[in-house]
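Practice set, problem 2.
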Amino acid sequence: MQHLRMMRKNMTQEELAHQLGVSRQTISKWELNRGNPELNKIKEICTLFNCSSDELLFGNMRIANEAYSEIQIEPLSGFKFIKYTVISAEPEDDALNRIRQLAKELNIEHPKVIGWDFPHLSQEQTNVYHMHGYTAALVVPEGITIDTKSISVEERKAQNYVTITIKNPMDNPFHLVSNAYKSVFQYTHVNRYVYDHFAFEQLFQKSGVEYMKIHVAIQ
């Protein structure tokens, strides 16, 4: 339940207790697994947080561990980018390497590289050949001139993003990254934000530790 409160714009125990008509100590007891809500309160909590009773009682939505940061709303300035998509059994490395090579060709030091899954595959590609798609993109630094006749440049406007950061995401990427996206989209839904159909991830290192930051655009 603590994670659900965090997703609801960091609702406090006192605020949740007031909405449910119980004491703060009761909320604390539930979160410490020293008791469970009564059936009528379970229904109220599920309605409030837009979740199922299984998710509430058995913790299917929990990601609150040391691998994840808190979910936040962050403004991001508009930016231009050049993208490259690969469809194969393992497309991520090929797409990222092509974008890094492009950054070298354009003499861009310390390039900002982002990426996202490419969803537009046929059923045959997915089910028969077990392929998936990945798009890597180079964020064009300010002051860099690109020949748009030979390279297609796209642009995103300045807007807010729902973000979460994962520590050591490659330790278990399927579990860690998938759960992070799930939680960010759940946060977006619970708080009635409108998804703007653009999301991306960025790998970076800090103090010798690898991190991945996920951004989901909202209107």
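Problem 2, part (b): a different protein.
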Amino acid sequence: MFGLFKKKQQTFNNAEIDRLTYAVGDVHGMFDQFCGLLEKIRLDAQSFRVTPRVVLLGDYIDRGPASSRVIDEILRMQSHIDAGRGWCELEVLIGNHEWAMMNFLATGDAMWLKYGGDTCATSYGVEVPFNLDFRSTAAAVREELRRRLPPQHRELIQRMKYLFQAGDYLFVHAGVSPKKPLADQGPETFLWIRDEFLSTPRACDYVVVHGHTPTLEPVNQEWRIGVDTGAYETGVLTAVRLNGRQRDFINIAN
């Protein structure tokens, strides 16, 4: 089942994007929804007769069952684009879950496993014991994941951006702080912020498009667009289409 959310096109504050752009919310290992939404975006963009930009907002892994396949699909898209066979331009942002996996591999911090990393490791063929509280258990999972994680997957995550800006829009995984300039902010804000960002009517000079905080329907405010609809729990994966001054939401559900 898939379709457009029944929401009227809206124009806010004369904010304008420089070209047809789609921003996709948190995938969290939901491979079928990811591929289905990308296909729907591809078909939708054909009606505009231009090559669209697709911005992926992070959190491709963890919680859902197929993290490794999602990363494979992003790599496949990039390879087609590099070979001149892609249907879109692609911007890939990092989420806090990708950051947490890299931190686990570097330091052994087992918190990643407790917040969905166990299903990610399993998707790479790593056997994850039930009890994750023991240091020795986390260490064994870490070493096995190090062996099984393809170098291309690690390199992709290391290349991911924290921010992408186009026209009057700023794309980021979690949000930005309204209390200091963007140049003074870093990963701890871009990947993790919630309340301070969500509660302010305007966080910066751009309309911020983000994921990270799940809602049952996408958020469409004057200065903030949220497209994390909790795909790993709801089965609904969402994107926003930005075209000139118009905004629309596209979703796909299992």
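Answer key, part (b): DSSP finds nine helices and eleven strands in the chain. The CA atoms of residues 86 and 125 lie 30 Å apart.
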